[in-house]
User: Fold these one by one.
Assistant:
Number 1:
Amino acid sequence: MAKLGFASIVTAFVATLAIVGFTAEDASAGKPCATAKPETKFLADACKKGGQDEAKKAMKGFLKGYKKTNPTATCNSCHTKVGGAYPLKPDALQKAKDAGMK
């Protein structure tokens, strides 16, 4: 009887670890990108890698490099709102391509 109780405890512990592992993996994927189909490979790759958090990190890195040639550039240079779905200004895609984004 004691062996059965021990086996039950071990089984419950293993099941708990499995559930926590799957849940943690889903949480690390992050919030998906607001744009269903990113218009550049740069953003599509970032969205695929880690969702909105990864895309934001990639864009911050891109902006840092872009500021070397255009020091006045900010997130608001291309986005009408910084946050949420990060809506773009009409000329944002062209600005990004002109800056070297693929």
Number 2:
Amino acid sequence: MASCSSMVLVAVILLLSTNTRGVFSSYREKEVLSLKKLQWSQRSSKTSFLSQKSRTENGATILEMRHRDCFSGIISDWNQRLQNWLQADRIRVKSIHAQIKILASGKTEAHSQTRIPIASGVNLHTLNYIVPVTVGGRNMTVIVDTGSDLTWVQCQPCKLCYNQPEPIFDPSLSSSYHSIPCKSSACQSLQFATGNSGLCGGDAGTCKYEVSYGDGSYTRGVLGSDRLILGTIPVENFVFGCGRNNRGLFGAASGLMGLGRSDLSLISQTSDVFGGVFSYCLPTTDVGSSGSLILGGDASVCKNSTPFSYTRMVPNPQPVTFYFLNLTGITVGGVATQAPSFGKAGILIDSGTVITRLPPSIYEAVKTEFLKQFSGYPTAPSFSILDTCFNLSSYDEVDVPTVKMQFEGDAELTVDVTGIVYIAKSDASQVCLALASLTFEDEIGIIGNYQQKNTRVIYDTKESKLGFAKESCSFY
């Protein structure tokens, strides 16, 4: 009888404890998620763009990387802002798939190591990451994008430029600036870098460019070259776009840094300096958090807490911009999910896309296993592209099953617990699985930046390999 009473008492204690923390642990691997820590905070102050730092260490250039959220003040309606970000993310994914189809068909439309601080870009009004650079003696803050090739900044004279807190670059004030001629190899490289060939018009000494991002965003201007400084490392005659007509979801950044694979990308142009190697550790959206973009050197300069595991970059002649990998599996809470697309369809990794997109069969397998393990919590309506949501407002913290992605060669990306769920409402009444399904099985999957947080991702373009390691992201 006493034994029975004890069992009842234990059951009551467990039931009561779920007010602050879930006790649904039918899975082997889990992590504790503090809901208060993860909630989007209401910003009350701004951080100066130019306060981002850089340094050189063991032959590497290290730039401080921040999320753009660190640079805006109070945002009154975070729910609507998050909706807008995910809608923009949906459009970006469509744009990437459209670009893949165009370039894969062969058709085009005519129209040393340095550590750079990397920051989240929420406060520049997009979920992207930003770093500081210097062009022609002017300090600037630019978006980091592995899914783009052409680096560009807003330039005077401006026909149409969006507002930015930093002075707009005026090439006439830079003694090292030069225009790129129309028949130059750089101008001809635009076709592969942007999908649009360079335009000459009536001026053979000028190469006009146009980049459209598929969501109505675009940049138009002329190609130029100038002295680029990354940290303390100078890069002479760096070719970039001088944007005089720019519109879209670039927030308040001065421009964009293209880290893709074509000849015009920053990685290709600086291969003699940095050896075609770069890595980043993307910070969270917390106020004051920072990560880093490292150019050059080797893995020894990184502050990873686990060893790197590498996978090969899948050869893909068209399009050359993106970094493709072979996804072979995903485990949820230590349980391997089963889907016919594993090992058959390529997936690209992208710093500009926010939420990871998976082929329908893989997404359904992951979602089903997640729901099986994360059971017992009240559900909530879907949020934008996220269809698996919960009401966790009664909990201070919950146990979340781990999510790990496996790649060819036994490489593994362990998704940080803050990248597994997405808090849509600040009171945690709408917390969603931070993954989304593609529409069709043959569409290319995309690993977004939300799932790359607190992970050191290293790209070795010379050896055509990419590695993952856990790291608590910080510039210092």
Number 3:
Amino acid sequence: MTTPSVLCISIVSPDDSLFFIKKYNTNNGASPSDDIEMDSYVFLGIDGFGQGKTFRQSFKNDRFFILFTKDWCNVYGYKAPLGYKIIVIISASTNPPNQSSIQNLCERVKDELFSSFMNPFYSPFAPTTSPILKAKIDQLVSAAFVD
């Protein structure tokens, strides 16, 4: 049984500009076309937030939903307070993660994001350059779905 892994995580600001993106599939021999495809899924995910329920399948929580699925990945969305959106692309596997673990990952990323806003040098709505935030998100992703 294969376990799912996070292929990409991105944070989108309230004006739908990309605030943070990190791809985790580059170590697995991903080609440049895979990288472009991942970017397109992130931007399709951004569009999915505005499409209403026809585009996405909502779960118990209205803030968390699956935006769309492909044969090799699932794209999840989480709408945080203040209009920030978190998009997570997870590999399709024979042992899919439960929804609560993905939602938990999104909520922890949101908590780290909002903690980074307390930095006095933070520039509102500018793409993040904080190495601390990047390291904390990497740590959350590496711990996701580990049994």
Number 4:
Amino acid sequence: MTDNTTFLALPEDIHIRILIELDVYSVVHCAMTCKELCEIVRGSITLEYRIQLYLDGLVDVGASAAGTQNILGDLLSYRQAWFAQEWPGYIEKIVRSSQYRSHIKFKFGGGALFITDGRHLEIVTLPTSSTDDGCVIQHELSTGGVSDFCIDSAQDVIAILENTVQMEDLSNLEGYFRDICIHIRTISTNLDHPLASKGKLWFVDECYDLREITISNPKLEIWDDILMLWTCHYIPRLLIWDWKTGNLLEDFTFDVAQSSLKPRYRHDFGLLGSSDFAFLTRPTGCGSIELYRLGKYSNDGPTTLLATLNFPPLSRNSALKSLDLDVDSTPVRQTPHGSFIVNNEEGIYVFRVCYEFQTKGTRVQYFSMTMYVHQRAFMKYCTYERDVEDLSLDVPWDR
């Protein structure tokens, strides 16, 4: 008998005991090798449950008292509801209308919808398995306005970038300098966060027009103890804090030649974790995604470029018009009485790309697409063991 037939000759319960000890990737590979192993895997509720969790990017947390068969049934029912959009019921929440509709900003995370018009913060929590109904929490904001905000509901923290500034005219310099504040507060009580040694993080920004009293298109993101602010106002800039200690870890201004970040034009920014982040660049060429490791986590010292992922080359009559990146930077944490949660290592990043095409004459056409990219497409470059001489990877678009 061959090795394969010898293994298949073992009792089925032995097969299952062996397969349970494997990771889900190996279980799927075993099931694909032959019909007999595929039937064994399909016949085991435990193995089937693990595979179905993997397909949805979930992990079991073992908090439910229900049996595996019941939890598997719930998982398949939830998936069918998502696919068919057939929900057993819904609850309607009335959200406060605002006269400042053009200034409304919202975030979704941790089972709640966060809405602000710059003067109020409204938190609409959703029903869960342990609560029959959600609730609406309203806070009055004393910040004078909100340029952007980010949340981590697991740590009960919200960071608010204030859009009112204190302007100082320094006549001996070319521009104007303004003090800008980021408030670190609790979501539940709207008070200074107890884990933050400083309730307000101040930084100085330079502008060249007194009419520009706010930062245009800021992007504020948080992950664990890391808080990052990306601005593209006059001069692109990235600021990185440890919000718990209040220390400013990095301040990159991209027109400075000695910056450890490559001095290219950057179009958007995304925080990929507590140690890694990405830039979308849109130079005169085809564009690229740059992956960086934060200095405090890098063995190389300063913030380091790990890899450059290049976009496809373009024809002479086309150009990359815009790039956008959406990353859910809120790490998922276990909730009470839950059976499974989203795996932090199975995230999906959303890219929106717009190309411009020059047709006959002066006519211009635009082509836009949305791409959903798995997190591991980036993480394999972030965890790549590099030689000392090979400081970064340059990855062609078709690799």
